[in-house]
Specification:
The chain is mainly α and 104 residues long. The chain has a single domain, classed as Non-ribosomal Peptide Synthetase Peptidyl Carrier Protein, Chain A, CATH 1.10.1200. It is built from four helices and no strands. The protein has helices at 3-7, 9-25, 45-59, 76-88. Helix 2 (9-25) crosses helix 3. The termini are far apart. Residues 94-104 have low confidence and may be disordered.
Length: 104
């Protein structure tokens, strides 16, 4: 884990929100943050597309084609890293990024 992640409480909040998306929106029990979501069978192609849509809605971001690599979505950890990188690059609307996962 990088120093940026370890020192950034926002990273852990993002992980919790992603786990909430999996649980609340996709009816999937959230695995450990480093579990491979594809190899474990947690995500199939349909659930992956649903996850992308919910991530874009919950975090107020658009997943650009250059970020659309399966490696970026293999685990909660990697998804949180991608979102944090987007946030740090100013690609996430700060008002939308505060949306609560529980909000339907």
């Amino acid at each position: 884990m990088s120093v940026i992640k370890m020192e950034n409480p926002e990273y852990y909040r993002i992980q919790i929100r992603i786990a909430g998306v999996l649980t609340e929106k996709l009816a999937i029990e959230a695995p450990p943050e480093d579990a491979d979501l594809f190899e474990t069978g947690i995500l199939d192609s349909q659930k992956f597309v649903e996850l992308l849509l919910h991530i874009e809605q919950q975090f107020g971001t658009h997943i650009a084609i250059e970020d659309f690599e399966i490696e970026n979505f293999r685990s909660i950890d990697r998804i949180a890293t991608l979102i944090l990188n987007h946030k740090n690059a100013g690609k996430i609307d700060s008002d939308t990024s505060a949306v609560d996962v529980e909000h339907h």
